[in-house]
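Readers outside the structure-tokenisation community will struggle with the description of the input data as it stands. What matters is that the chain and its backbone geometry are given together, residue for residue. For illustration, here is how one protein appears when written out as sequence plus structure tokens:

…
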Amino acid sequence: MLENFMAVNLNPPQAGQLPPVAGVELLVAEAGIKTPGRKDVLVVKLDKGNTVAGVFTRNRFCAAPVRLCQEHLAAGVQIRALVVNTGNANAGTGFDGRERALSVCRAVAERDQLQTEQVLPFSTGVILEPLPADKIISALPTLRQANWAEAAEAIMTTDTLAKAASRKLDIGGKPVTITGIAKGSGMIHPNMATMLGFVATDAAVTRPMLNQLVREVADQSFNSITVDGDTSTNDSFILISTGQSGALLIDSAEQPAYQLLKQALLDVAIELAQAIVRDGEGATKFITVEVNGGRSVAECKDVAYAIARSPLVKTAFFASDPNLGRLLAAIGYAGVADLDVDRLSLYLDDVLVACEGGRNSLYKEEQGQAVMNQSEITVRVELGRGAASARVWTCDFSYEYVRINADYRS
């Protein structure tokens, strides 16, 4: 059995591979919120003329900073700063939590001569603990310039590696940059995007189009991952457009530039989302679940998530055990009431393991075992009832997942 629990085929980001985005300034500090001497506060300063959009957790116990972000974005003012702290989620903290988050926003606003509503707060860490706002505010004078790799480190909690990605593209003859960071390792499951993620581009995008982009990108990336089936109270995905590339303004989804930018943003978001799964708490396997031939994307996602979040399936992957019964059972309880199992086919990578309602007569156990021994595995389900498809990413469950979460508050 594996004893070295590290992120699955994931390397730490290199600063040289993460170009700056014009109009974005990154600052970090050590506030000592949970662990002395580590970067735990990030401030993102934005130049005038930007647009910002976000999507957030649908957990009804959403944290105070999530509610404030939603309110500040809805106020219609131009966002000029983001402030992120780790070590404390400020969730389940009631009115006091809101006041503490507001005090941090006020302090950042006063520092840079902004309105309080122009600051978006984000928190991640332990739930039901009061936010040490005084520590965060006291750390603001010590903020120092940072690059994207350092910013990614500053938002980590149980992550073993920082997560960052970047792309460059050309829009109308103008070079455009996209760089983003994310954090997440446990309590990962939709809805919305199960983590904190911040992606910036110097492309120019109107607010209505940016609002559309952030939803579309989240649905195909951060809303397509699960580590443990638990949706966090603090999930936030923010998309920033500074407009400083000089490329033409994107104000319609019909523009070719919209699709170009969307694909590049999606590439960055998928890389970040997959990095979260690869760094899932205690993960030793990275698993892609593809479901094809459904009548709707929602139906395909239901089947994919039934497999991806099953503790029995995930522990079988950890043990490298090709336990086909667990996979078939998950498909069967996914909620597709009129599913014809005789038309269904199940594959491990390219090995057909089940068809026509049962085990493939040509399948041999050693074939499945060879696939399960790999660190990256694809489970493919062909439903045989339509043209829709969906894909989600997950990881296995190991002993280390239990240890990490048993010790989380210590």
